[in-house]
Amino acid sequence: MNNNTSLKSSSREKDNILLRIYRNPYFRYIIFGAILALIPIASGMNILPSSYITIMGSVMIYSIVGIGLNLLLGYSGLISLGTAGFMGLAAYVTGYLSVNVNAPFIVALAVSIFVVVLIGVIVGFVSLRVAGIYLAIATLCVSEILRKTFEELEWLTNGFSGLNASFPRLFGIQLNRKSTYFLIVVVLILVMMLTHNLVKGQMGRALHAMRESEVAAQAMGVNLLKYRLVVFAIATAYAAIGGALYIFFIRFSIPGTWTMALSLNILGAVVIGGLRSIYGTVIGCFVIFAIPDIVLKPLFGDVNGLQYVFSGLVVILVILFYPAGVKNMREDFFRLCRFLKKKINERKGKGEIQ
Amino acid sequence: MPKNNSEKYTMDESLSLKITDLSINFGGLKAVDGLSIDVKKNEIFGLIGPNGAGKTTAFNCITQFYHPDRGEVLFRTKQGNVVNLVGRNTHDIIKLGLVRTFQNVEVIKELSLLENVLLGAHIDFKATIFEQALCLPRARREERELREKAAEGLRFMGIEALKDAKAGGQPYGVLKKVETARTLMCEPSLIILDEPAAGLNDSETAELTEIIRNIRDAYDCTILLVEHDMHLVMNVCERICAISFGEFLACGTPEEIQANALVQEAYLGEKEFKGGE
């Protein structure tokens, strides 16, 4: 009996090799990346305005940061309000290294990740011993200290005048806006895949256990402090990658960019996208960072602060009426389809009887 | 917390666990007071007592969820050396070969049954986080092998067919089995079961009796359990210790415990009850 079923299933799998490829999560991530890569091509063919490249590039950068924050919030239940500070620090370090020291892209990126994660781990080590809100408070303080430092530390950041940078050089090739966009797509897809692997493996299970039952996690040998630290380090590393890509893509950074508003916007994107959802975070970032520019600006003009009103409203609406976030939309859509189909069939059935 | 790792401890060859003078207070309430128990190797040992007697507290003191105020918990690890558990980190206990279940099943609802069991193999994963993120060969091989082992655990409990179902929404009896299967992943030398029969119906309890014996025989380990279901305790346990209000009452075979006057008094009340007989 057992043998029989396994034979059956293996032959079924062979038949549907296409279906299996389609179901492969890595394949889906690559398709997702290919769709994102269409935008500069479409704008090259004058289908989309070229400003969409910058907008979507930023959305992807914030998505990388958001995925890190989602890992932290969704799995360990901890909130970091220092995202913007860590991003900004990475942006300035990368910018300084590539402009003043003339370091290659990879070196600048690696150094900035190292510096930011180091600071993050120190902050985490102090505040994560006590669970709860302390990480949020500590990271908020660090973020504000960093922002003030950006204003004052002129040799690194050029103060209020802002730091100018250029598109990166990769393997001796000078990239332009479009090729940098493609670089961001590649990095985003890699980050999504790495996160996917982490979440599906031993670490993911440990994080799930920590979230749902700390006692079970401890009894099974999960070191709570270690995993809180690791997941926080990953979140800061992603923030650092985002910050480094920001300075290479936007090529300009002022201290005013790295305020708490940015941290909260990314947090909002995570909430809209749905906790523990990788795709959801990207969609959430699209809603928060792209809709205001793509939809609201053409409709209402350049109203000051409209973006914040919009993101605040969306976050409130999502929490009130759709607390699981965008990630549930696909399932709910299919459920709605099934429901409608059933209703239509019932109608038909009734009609035949009559 | 004092770390006693450097000290050498000895206990009788035949023992698996030796508790001496274990005590813990919660703000003046003596939850466990001077408790001493010897558990032999490969024994099924029961800890009983009326509600609030401190049974679960005693378990929590053994597994270091609570750190006792006084006393020693000597344990023979699966490597064979004797250690004092008191003062160790909660998450290090499983590495020594001591694993437990919980009174209210603690399974992870969002994970499948198989993944829940895999959580029990957490300490067996040697691949680093980088290897896991990049899905390097070692991480892939470990995941594959331990998944196979977890499926075996579920097969042992007779619920392999449900392995891919989410734990959320599964009946209580199934979750209890998942939790038990999880303890088997680390190849323990001592399993602590906290009320394994709570919430089970009669036929499930009868099945549990078999399961507990099978685990002891198949995995060659010692089992220590707290239970309210006297039928189960008297059936499955080889020796029983009774406690009341945190204090030791009696220890012996099921027959001896049933005949013990102190135990009867603790369960059935004052002497006038007996006088009325």
Summarize the structure.
The complex is a heterodimer of chains A (354) and B (277). Chain A has 354 residues and is mainly alpha-helical.
Describe the structure.
The complex is a heterodimer of chains A (354) and B (277). Chain A has helices spanning 2-15, 17-23, 25-44, 51-76, 83-99, 105-127, 134-152, 154-157, 177-200, 202-212, 214-219, 224-250, 260-273, 278-289, 291-300, 306-321, 329-353; strands spanning 163-164, 169-170, 173-174, 252-253. Chain A is mostly helical and 354 residues long. In chain A, β2 and β3 form a beta hairpin. Chain B folds into two domains: 31-97 and 187-277, P-loop containing nucleotide triphosphate hydrolases (Rossmann fold); 107-186, no CATH class. In chain B, 35% of the residues lie in helices and 23% in strands. In chain B, α2 (113-119) packs across α4 (137-156) and α4 (137-156) packs across α5 (172-184). The radius of gyration of chain B is 20 Å and the shape is globular. The model of chain B is unreliable at 272-277 (pLDDT under 50). The interface between A and B is medium-sized, with 23 and 36 residues.
